[in-house]
Amino acid sequence: MKSVLLSFILFTTYCSADTDTELFLLEAVKVGKKVQEISQGTSLVEKLPLIEALSKEYTVDSVAFDILMQELSVYYSFAGQYKEVLISNDRSSNENASTLDDVTQFEVKGAINQILKKAETHQIVMINEAHDRSQHRVLTYQLLDGLWKQGFRYIAAESLNNNASEQIKNDYITNNAGYYTKEAIFANLILKAKKMGFEIISYDNYKARKLNTIEERETNAAQSIKEKVFDKDPKAKILIHVGYAHISEDKWLASKLKKITGLETLTVDQTTRMEQSNELYEHPTYTMAAKNSKLKIPFVFVNNEKVWSSNPNKWDVSVFWPRTTYQQGRPSWVALGRSQHNVTPSDCKDKFPCMFEVFKFNHADEVPIDRIIVSSIKDKKSVFLSKGDNIIVITGSDGKQITKTTISG
């Protein structure tokens, strides 16, 4: 069931390129079943090389190989392996033949302030992500404080299961709250929103699907948000975090929301101008922007009050992230204001690769607030600690605990 659902979600990355829907879904189901067969009962650390090996069987099948690379990339994001995420993306990419966008009349400004300015006149703000880019969740995390001050009291996320609210009521998020929320930054995002007082809204599977079409899914999602939020609170302000094309104002969720509620949605894209592990696969506008911008925070291009969009007919704002810098093996944007703690590879007791996970409570169903893989005794890595006590659990590749310590952040 999970693989079929993931396959449908992954399809949203292809539809704009006029991919044959039937072909994709058939391949996705086939590949998904194969992944389940080879990885059932394995730990996250064990899954990664298994899917890597499986991908070699599909190198001549471009659709299946792309699906495998996406699924592998998502698992790498769960494991805190951002460099591997980028490499997986590039392995299924072609050299970018896009032309450089003309942004010569625009200046670079920080994305947070510009989005907040635009949000003042909207009741709905929608931000997208690439599902394997945990970085994209950081933008939404950073917007929470400013949006709260503007009266936003609801947050919805595509990833959340119907009973998600029940899964985050005890100051931690469980593995049953959603699929992508099993990734640590997504868990931190939802936890912060909950602690601030946002009402958490799940919508993507609230209404039963009969046709499993994009039209049905987007219409159901918009109707669910209307029923859960605007029917009860017509003046409500809501932040919606989605994947890829759902922000599109032509046939996707943003357009359905406008039709059903009559409200304009502020739509923010992060997925069309992105960093890759090799500039050959980057959109040239991203490569140019990353080289020329001196900002160390996500940024946008602005001309007076106009914010540049890579496709103004589909979304309002395009966000660029500066090229990632690393410290002790971790991207700087992972910090979320937390303290960095260097790990000791010898704590793995020579059981490499091993996993370091940080918990607040260490319940059996708790999603960690940070997670990384240490591959050898020479692998210099770190974890991020929140204020108060943090429980660091080290497990071997088989998922069995090696050690557990408590450290103050």
Record the strand order, biggest sheet: 4-3-5-2-6-9
Please state the CA-atom Rg, rounded to the nearest Å: 21 Å
The main sheet comes to: 6 strands, parallel
Q: Write the H/E string, N to C.
A: HHHHHEHEHEHEHEHEHEEEEEEEEEEE
Distance N terminus to C terminus?
A: 39 Å
Mean pLDDT: 93
β-strand amount: 15-25%
Count of extended strands: 17
The class by helix and strand makeup works out as: alpha/beta
Helix-residue proportion: 25-40%
Low-confidence stretches: 1-18
CA-based shape: globular
Number of separate helices: 11
Textual characterization of the structure:
Helices cover 34% and strands 18% of the residues. It has eleven helices and 17 strands. The strands form five sheets. It has a six-stranded parallel sheet, sandwiched between helices. Helix 6 crosses helix 7 (135-149).
Could you list some keywords that capture this structure?
409 residues, alpha/beta, 11 helices, disordered N terminus
Please give a quick description of this structure.
Helix content is 34%, strand content 18%. By secondary structure, it is an alpha/beta fold.
Layout of secondary structure:
Blueprint: H1 2-11, H2 21-39, H3 44-55, H4 62-78, H5 82-91, E1 107-110, H6 111-119, E2 124-129, H7 135-149, E3 154-157, H8 184-196, E4 199-201, H9 214-230, E5 238-243, H10 253-261, E6 265-269, H11 284-292, E7 299-303, E8 306-307, E9 317-318, E10 326-327, E11 330-331, E12 339-342, E13 354-359, E14 370-374, E15 382-385, E16 389-395, E17 401-408
Parallel strand pairs: 2-5, 2-6, 3-4, 3-5, 6-9
Antiparallel strand pairs: 1-7, 7-8, 10-11, 12-15, 13-14, 13-16, 16-17
Helix pairs in contact: 1-2, 2-4, 3-4, 4-5, 6-7, 7-8, 9-10
